[in-house]
Amino acid sequence: MTTGHTLTELESGVRVVTEAMPSVRSIALGLFVGVGSRDETDSQQGISHFIEHLLFKGTERFGSTEIDEIFDAMGAEINAGTSKETTTLYARFLDRHLERALDVMSDMVLRPAWADVDSERQVVIEEIAMYEDEPSDKVHDVLAGAVFGDHPLGRPIIGTPDVVGSVSIEDLAAYHGSRYRPGRFVVAAAGNLEHERVVALVEQALAAGGPAPGTTQTLNGAGSERAPEVRFHRKETEQVHLCLGATGISRSDERRFALRVLDTVLGGSSSSRLFQEVRERRGLAYSVFSYFGQFVDAGEVALYVGTRPDRVAEALEVIAGELHRLQDEPVGAAELDRAKENVKGRTALALESTSARMHRLGSSILTGMPVLSPDEIMARVDAVSADDLGALARDLFAPERLSAAAVGTDEDAFRAALEPLSPALASS
User: Fold this and answer.
1) Active-site residue 52, yes or no?
2) Per annotation, catalytic residue among 9, 11, 19, 52
3) CATH code assigned at 126
């Protein structure tokens, strides 16, 4: 499996990174912009995500229906996404459509027409309402608020109805103009392609009325670690949806490979400790898992469980026991090997996809990370030891670091259930 990539930086500051995969007939193309919800002030919450929606509503050259027809005629897949640090427009299509796809996608990103803003703001407000009705989703944002406080990393990417409902076209255009700059752009592609041709097409697409060179992304610093906090969102639900979590490690932290293995052992797979003990042996939940997020200079580690109100205390007791066991007892050789093979297997399977390779290239270059070869990744995973996992678990999941969040009906009962895990947290 080869993943040799080629990187070129244009005079404008745009970076173009590609990976040739001659055995396929398709190309996955992504336009990555270093802007996300982390860039927003309190009065701008959700504006990055709203702009992502509006990219599809037409440009100076193409109407929204025409954009749909163009990509339908290619048999292509096109989508976009907003994260806390990145906005991405991406597509997959047959290799012969590269020039047309890049032309249209560049126009969408650089020159939105700001059409149908009022109708699309209603769509986004409905999306927010839909999200609010999903407690198993909502609780993760509640936890992020507890972990990061008032920092933008602690806010929902999707924004608020107040901001989305009132932001003006002038505000949208100003935000777009100040942040959609070449120094924040990475064009990534993987598939049946030639790097030099992609570079030439990018130069051509960006030369026609593109923004002036500059600037690179300047992030709102994550700051120092906060004291743990409990946050509760009251909602009539059959289950209590709860999360425990804390600040984690950044994208560049050398322990990132150990974290992937640790997450797999704790709750990131069907053979993980939380899944087996909480669900399979005790029947306390249908859904239980751990997860992590990594940013340029910060991170988050967390776990989730949804269970009936009368079983919250037992579920938390079991989770606390598994965290203590992970901190106090070395992971056995067989379990460690299984987790490593899981991480390596998922990595290898993902790298068979043009889309996965494109996203890996774009996000790595945009955030200043090295693009490691599969062999380098496998070697880093293989090097993880049981001692590494124990040290990382003690560092990240220490009881005095954990914040808690829940969506449900009884905050007092939830706080009482936290007492065995962390008396200080329960009384906070």
Assistant:
1) yes
2) 52
3) 3.30.830.10
